Amino acid sequence: MIINHPLLGPRDASEFTYLGDASLIDRPDGTAENAADAFYDYAYLRDNPAGEHRELWYHEAGDRSWLVVTRNTLTHEISKVELARDVARTRGRSK
Amino acid sequence: MTQVNRLTGGQIDRDTTLKFYFDGRSFTAHPGDTLASALLANNVRLIGRSFKYHRPRGLLTAGSEEPNGMVELRAGARKEPNTRATTIEMYDGLIANSQNRWPSLRFDALAVNDLFSNFLSAGFYYKTFMWPAAFWEKLYEPIIRRAAGLGSLSMQADPDEYDKGFRHCDLLIIGAGPAGLMAALTAGRAGADVILADEDFTLGGRLNSETFSVGDHSAPDWTAQTVAELLAMPNVRLMPRTTVIGAFDHGIYGAVERTGDHLPSLPAGKPRQILWRIYTQKALLCAGATERPIAFENNDRPGIMTASALRTYANRFAVTASPRVAIFTSNDDGHRTADDLHAKGVKIAAVVDVREDAPLSYDYEVLKGAQVINTRGRLGLSFVEVALPDGSTRTLDCGALGVSGGWNPNVHLTCHQRGRPVWNEALAAFVPGENLPVGMSVAGSANGVMSTHGALRSGAEAAAAALDLTTQPDLPEAEDAPMALKPFWYVQGCKRAWVDQQNDVTVKDVKLSYQEGFRSVEHLKRYTTLGMATDQGKTSNITGLAIMAEVAGKSIPETGTTIFRPPYTPVPIGAFAGRMTGKDFHPTRLTPSHHWAKERGAVFVEAGNWLRAQWFPLPGETHWRDSVDREVRQTRASVGVCDCTTLGKIDVQGTDAAEFLNRVYANGFAKLAVGKTRYGLMLREDGMVMDDGTAARLAEDHFVVTTTTANAVSVYRHMEFVRQCLFPDMDVQLISTTDGWAQYAVAGPNSRKLLQKIVDPEFDISNEAFPFMACGKITVCGGLRARLFRISFSGELAFEIAVPSRYGDALMRRLMTEGKEFDVTPYGTEALSVMRIEKGHPVGNELNGTTTALNLGLGKMVSKKKDSVGSVLSEREALTAPDVLKLVGLKPVNPEEKITAGGHLMNIDGPVDATHDQGYVTSAAYSPNLNSHIGLGLLKRGDARMGEKMRLVSPLTELNVEVEIVSAHFVDPEGERLRA
Q1: Contact between residue B690 and residue B684 where contact means Cβ atoms under 8 Å apart
Q2: Is the bond preceding B132 in cis, omega lying within 30 degrees of 0?
Q3: Per-residue 3-state assignment (H helix, E strand, C coil) for B570-599
């Protein structure tokens, strides 16, 4: 597998560690009213799509960037690689 | 005379004679031979015994598709079982032995299986060894294992080295036959970076096996000329003896290069094989095609081979399997073999062609519309019985029979990304389908282009298309005959006709499996084991499928096909391991003072990749406990030093550093003062404890965080996740400094006095100036920068001192010298562990991924005033129920009795079973301070059960000890010592 790192170009998968669904970026507010239910969904419920999947990869043996990789689970085709930090910002995360 | 079956010509070097040994007998051969061709030259047809029936077997093919001709190659620790004689390149002194026979190849006791073949049909394992169940493990399985199976392992470690490597190219060409060579010429002349890999030691593929001309040259001469031109191109890399074993994601190909298998002995330091990972945008599969046999009664006798194999042996290796040969064919290609053999002076007994309209020959008899219905010969073929169209039969006297049922394109690599081949009616074979691995194209007979000219043309065109080239080399003239064949799979009425010779699967087995309800091809495979041997059915899968289709009354494409997985041919485990064997399985990390510890005679233990000193034996100490007990006593009585460099250290800097730690730790960090250290508890988002450590605030915007040795990597990864994915706008930076600092715990009542001798005088480390949990940047030994933390894992007055790594060894030696007056001792991980158990500190045994802060008695640390990772889910009902496990101390009622980690706690009178389980022991040690074995455990409602007597049991070891539940803080529960 080769992941096309947005800063470093194509890198071998052996440099990366996999975490899971990119929805882990959308951490709920722990102080909100419904926090317990929201965290149950966040921690345990995942979609398991046959097709495009957005997932978190960590360039552990590289520059330590967390990346959001869009990978087709049927073909392993990688159609998009983004810095997770950029994705997090577009999803409204800040401090 | 030796080599009685040698012919003229061929690509062997007759000027050099090599000696080799088969089953202890010595023979001669020439460079250019394979073991198979050399055995045939010496008139050895019988090479092994079959898997199930122990039938005598010889060679079926001349290539890597060989199902039968398998031997144990080499001797001693280098012995390699199940090696195909057809791919073993001859060298002087080669040793090979037949396998799966006892007491000898010519007389094999288990050949009796053949008489009981009715009981050994498809699915016989499932049917025969069903009952009683208890017999399976003790009786059936050992018998089956002894009787079945093929070669045996040497049972010794492989003394040779294997390696791994990486290569990159613009175009990877797999297979160096006519298509591959022409493709390489096209791409090479255009300046592209090309890798041309072929499993054979001589490039050229079938061109080496044919007598026709290419351009103005013979096929082998054209090949040699082309290879010479490619060799001269700096942008083309030729890789003979290299099998491309798999097509993986995103243009990565696996390949095994046999760099040393053809050498009598390996040059020092050279690997036997190299596993290459080849990265390429474009790959061109030119893997050729494999001739398939026809199934007929007793078609497995030594001497019965594919017709193309006979042709290869004659033309390339100048060998015939017998002076008298017959051919059984369904197509024109079989006649070509007869022509070539006849031209070499081999007597053709007859060509048996199933077609009524078969071409005739002036040189030999052709029996049109005829079929081979049986064969005879105990250890090798001697007669062939032929049924003629008029109903009469004829017996042919011959020692070899070449069989040709057509050619199957080698589509294997096109399937490695789940591509499905499609049926081609004209060839009666599967060809690559649409869904190829990204970047792969196929040329030559692998793509169903069966003529030589077609292969040359398609190779050139495919290379040009892959690289967007506008020019192609001129194509040489070559044979361009169409494939003329009648699909013919097996002779009607045959029963013991072998489809898969290696796994002993017959036509009858395939039919039986269908009758018993196995309708899917995948089920057929698994029930009969068709195609599941080491050759993966290269000569048998399609035939098996065709028989099944016929029984089902369906067409072959309707019946379906199985697809292929990597590897293309078997790969030794050694090649996958490369150099990662033994001590080199993972890197070994040494702390800066490792060599000092070694000089002191330390015993080391592996902690992840690290080697840590476990204890430091002194002269006269005979048992490890002697050393450990002394180290504990000496530390608690005066002072000890322990290397804790292996703990993870993460530097956290930025204006948001404190707030960041507030989010990753369950307890609060925002208000930690500069110059102070705090114990930190890190949770996973599901509320379980992830890790613990300390965070020292060296400046307003600068912390140093420690992690456990085991979790250094995963905690760093987690903190980067929190930083980048959850709080992307926080001003905070992380860097691992684990390797940057050597760190030592100095513990015991005299620890301050010892440190005062090396800390530069301008730094006051008295209790008033540098109290418990203080931290700061200091200098030692006259100006060396250092960091000092007043933290304690042992429960004693203690410090941890860190210096830049390169000074670690010097600092340790200095502490030992300066500490002499205090009777200082170094202590290892065992003493460290004893003291932390005495103090009730949890480590990895307790932070085992299933424990919460509440379980560990640290529930109050989880701040409810803030939102930190894991805080919400740690409050879940089940995790906070009244009967959750709580950390407790354990003491045996009889102090002589041992506490055993992993043992379970049961009520003193209650039943001992899983439903009455009350908890378990996580850590155990002997405490030289309490003169008793002690332990830590997790017990339901443990904090409310102090003083209760319980039973510690382990049904596996028959452990049964009466213990008392006590506080986990065995030593100095009030913490007076560490504040002293």
Answers
A1: yes
A2: yes
A3: CCCHHHHHCCCCHHHHCCCECCCCHHHHHH
Q: Which fold has domain B628-645+740-839?
A: Gyrase A; domain 2 (3.30.1360)
Strand ranges in B466-507 using DSSP code E only, listed in sequence order:
498-500, 505-506
pLDDT of B754 above 60: yes
Q: Which residue has the tokens 């015993």?
A: B603
Which two three-digit tokens encode residue B334?
Answer: 């079989």
Q: Nearest CA to B95 among B179, B150, B29? A: B29
Distance from CA of B865 to the nearest CA of A (A): 9
Whether residues B868 and A29 touch (CB distance < 8 A) is answered with no
Burial class (CB in 10 A: 0-12, 13-18, 19+), B899: buried
The domain tally of chain A equals 1
Closest chain B residue to A2, measured at CA: B250
Q: By mean pLDDT, which of A85-89, B50-54, B159-163 is the weakest?
A: B50-54
The two tokens of residue B977 are 């010592």
Q: Does B930 touch chain A (CB under 8 A)?
A: no
- For the stretch B918-935, what's the b/e string if a residue is b when 16 or more beta carbons lie within 10 angstroms of its beta carbon? bbbbbbbbbbbbeebbbb
Domain B872-966 has CATH 2.40.30.110: yes
Third-level CATH fold of B1-156: Ubiquitin-like (UB roll) (3.10.20)
Q: What percent of chain B has pLDDT over 90?
A: 86
Give the model confidence (pLDDT) of B529-546 as tens digits: 898 888 889 999 999 999
B686–A contact, CB cutoff 8 A: yes
Q: Decide yes or no: CATH 3.90.550.10 for domain B488-559.
A: no
Chain B residues touching A64 at Cβ < 8 A: 720
Q: Which two tokens stand for residue B561?
A: 């096909």
Q: In this model, does residue B50 exceed pLDDT 90? A: no
- Tens of pLDDT, residue by residue over B888-938, are 999 999 988 999 999 999 999 989 999 999 999 999 999 999 999 999 999
Contacts of A82 in chain B (CB under 8 A): none
Closest-CA distance, A53 to chain B, in angstroms, reads 16
